Amino acid sequence: MFKLSPTILNVDELKQSLLKNDSVGAFVSFEGWVRNQNADKNVVALEYEAADSLCERETAEIINEAKAKFEVQEVLCCHRTGKVSVGEMSVWIGVTAVHRDAAFTACRFVVDELKRRVPIWKKEFYSDGTVVWLEGCNAQTGVPGTSRLTEANYYDRQIKMPWVGQHGQEKIKNARILVVGAGGLGCAALTSLAQMGVGTIGVCDHDVVAAENLHRQPLYRVADVSRLKAEIAAAQLEAINPFVKVNACAQKVDDKNIEELAAPYLVLLDCTDNFEAKFLLHDYAYKNRKVLVHASIYQAEGQLRVFDFSREQKGPCLRCLWPEVPPSGPSDALSQPAVLGPVPNILGHWQALESLKWILDLPDQLQQHTLVFNVFTNEVVKIKNKRNPDCPLCAEQ
Ligand SMILES: [Zn+2]
């Protein structure tokens, strides 16, 4: 268990909460105290700032790892937040086990991993009146003065792009994008969207991670097999960028729930792998004036299309190309299992880029065209989509 505490730590209380179990044979604790010196400077106080949900998630991982590696019973970590004076305790870690060796080793493991991985930033106040932020997580360098994580430094290099800037970054932050399908296309698209700073991202996938997904779906690890993709992806994305909000939905999108699931989003990314879902998303986007970034792959080839129905409902649309949903089954090429990992990944990142171009209203967007690329021949072709005067969807507009 992990607790952040804005007040003085009560060691007796913490200890008693671990020692309720009669099977405890060993109890080991660590106490970190604020001392008056650091690198020849006289310290008078510290201030801790923590990313709460990330701290909880990362510490839960560390505790699970400790329980898997060593035969420990319970682990409790408590860390102060806010201003802490010299002579006060800033961190308390307690471990119980049947045997002392497991308790000692696990306690040392948790102390080290907590220091290395948990995002808590520390500000030191010195007797000469100066103040310096020290690195929290990734503290291996131990270099004082390195800055804590902020949106300004996270997006620094992107904001320097002339067509993004601070104003563009704000637009990206205000964007709401739903990604349907968290497979090879979705993992790549979601990662790019989160890293670019899309403020609200929805991820919808009813499936669980399978071993044969891992070669092309980089948000998942071996330990995630059999767990829900949407939930793992959401947690991973918020760890990649704590400044974005990710809403997980572990439902299969169908004609009954699509209204409710997609309503909060203006841009939809089709990262699905079957015709039925692709046409469902497309027709919903058309009827509800949404922007659809559509992608599909077949072996070494990928195709990308952007339909901006928020501005234009006169086509061409997907049903101009295929009036009816192609039959699934053996003739459905998308359901074939042969996939080369980089192909959906490239296309997924490209979907995110086209979304960005739409958010920033940049020139040369892909609307009304199909981009076809082949990774073996290195050919990229941009083809103008043709309007079908007999289209069952858009011809009547
Ligand atoms: Zn049409």
Structure report:
- With 397 residues, the protein is of the alpha/beta class.
- It has 2 domains: 2-149, Aldehyde Oxidoreductase, domain 3; 157-384, Rossmann fold.
- The chain contains 12 helices and 17 strands.
- The protein has helices spanning 11-18, 52-69, 100-117, 151-154, 156-159, 165-174, 184-196, 229-240, 258-262, 275-287, 318-321, 342-359; strands at 2-5, 26-33, 37-38, 41-50, 72-80, 82-85, 89-97, 120-126, 131-134, 176-180, 200-204, 245-249, 267-270, 291-298, 301-308, 369-374, 379-384.
- Strands 12-11-10-13-14-15-16-17 form an 8-stranded mixed sheet, sandwiched between helices. Strands 3, 4, 6, 8 and 9 form a 5-stranded antiparallel sheet that branches. Strands 1-5-7-2 form a 4-stranded mixed sheet, sandwiched between helices.
- Helix 7 (184-196) packs parallel to helix 8 (229-240) and helix 7 packs parallel to helix 12.
- The longest helix is centred in the N-terminal third of the chain and has 18 residues, at 52-69.
- Bound molecules: zinc ion (ZN).
- Zinc ion (ZN) binds next to helix 11.
